[in-house]
Design goal:
The chain is α/β, with parallel strands linked by helices and 284 residues long. It is built from ten helices and ten strands. The protein starts with a strand and ends with a strand.
């Protein structure tokens, strides 16, 4: 049975994550594993030895109070996690899913992804998290690290779920593009949708051959598919195409350049996730 890992922090994007998870699980006939990460466990708060300034008794009392405070915070965090998972399970059950399991673990989400990614066919995460800055359109702090650490496709949920019918595949002929095509052919997630393969740049024989091979592979699998090569700025052309064709899902490779190159010239991946108000399915 296929498995979907659905990551939630209970933020404003949580409901959208659940809706996208339910959509994917129904199409893939998949079980759902809901994951919520608590802050890593820490040792009781330690104080610099201030006994010379405030006295030994005061130091001991203050240390005991801090330990009690840490324990209270841990209990609140656990209760909050249980509430988040219960809400997620109710939401998915209302969508008709029956094979759902929730789990809260201590640690960073990126570390958890490494642990669970091996058994997940798809990872679903919100575009922005608990501390999102919507005014500045900042992405969630975990998003890029999660996508980089996943070996399976990552579905980045938009602010709200909308029915998906038209899919745009940003195709560059590289390994991630081929992985997306193979996934479309072998996995039921995108079955029955109209697909548009789009390469942004100048045409060349090698690219044209790769694009035609991908189009033929999809057509043989029963897809209605168009393939185009359009010159221009990658980010602008994709954004314009999404709007013009009322695309509901963008499929693309994730972070194809080195970290150093991204630092210098930016990342198409990050720009697309930030500016396109639709879900993005990413492949490494």
């Amino acid at each position: 049975m296929s498995s979907i890992l659905s990551c939630t922090d209970g933020s404003v994007y949580a409901r959208s994550v659940y809706d996208h998870t339910a959509w994917a699980a129904q199409r893939m006939a998949a079980a759902v594993h809901i994951l919520h990460c608590l802050e890593p466990r820490r040792n009781p708060a330690a104080l610099t030895d201030l006994s010379g300034a405030i006295g030994v008794d005061a130091q001991a009392k203050l240390t005991a109070e801090l330990v009690t405070l840490d324990e209270a915070r841990a209990r609140v965090a656990q209760a909050h996690a249980r509430a988040i998972l219960a809400d997620a399970e109710r939401h998915l059950a209302a969508a008709g899913l029956t094979c759902v399991m929730g789990e809260a673990i201590h640690g960073e989400l990126t570390d958890a992804i490494t642990r669970f990614d091996a058994t997940a066919d798809l990872v679903v995460i919100g575009k922005r998290g608990e501390h999102a800055d919507f005014a500045k359109l900042h992405l969630g702090g975990n998003l890029e690290r999660v996508i980089r650490s996943c070996h399976h496709p990552v579905l980045v949920a938009s602010r709200a779920f909308a029915p998906i019918e038209r899919v745009l595949v940003a195709f560059d002929g590289g390994p991630s593009s081929r992985a997306a095509i193979d996934f479309a052919v072998t996995n039921p997630l995108m079955r029955g949708f109209s697909l548009h393969l789009l390469h942004v740049g100048n045409p060349n024989p090698e690219l044209q051959s790769s694009l035609e091979a991908a189009r033929s592979q999809l057509a043989a699998a029963g897809f209605v598919v168009a393939a185009d090569v359009v010159p221009g700025d990658v980010e602008q052309v994709i954004v314009d195409t999404v709007k013009k064709e009322s695309v509901n899902l963008l499929v693309m490779g994730a972070y194809g350049h080195s970290r150093i190159r991204q630092f210098i010239v930016g990342s198409t991946t990050t720009t697309m996730v930030r500016t396109c108000q639709i879900p993005v399915l990413m492949f490494r």
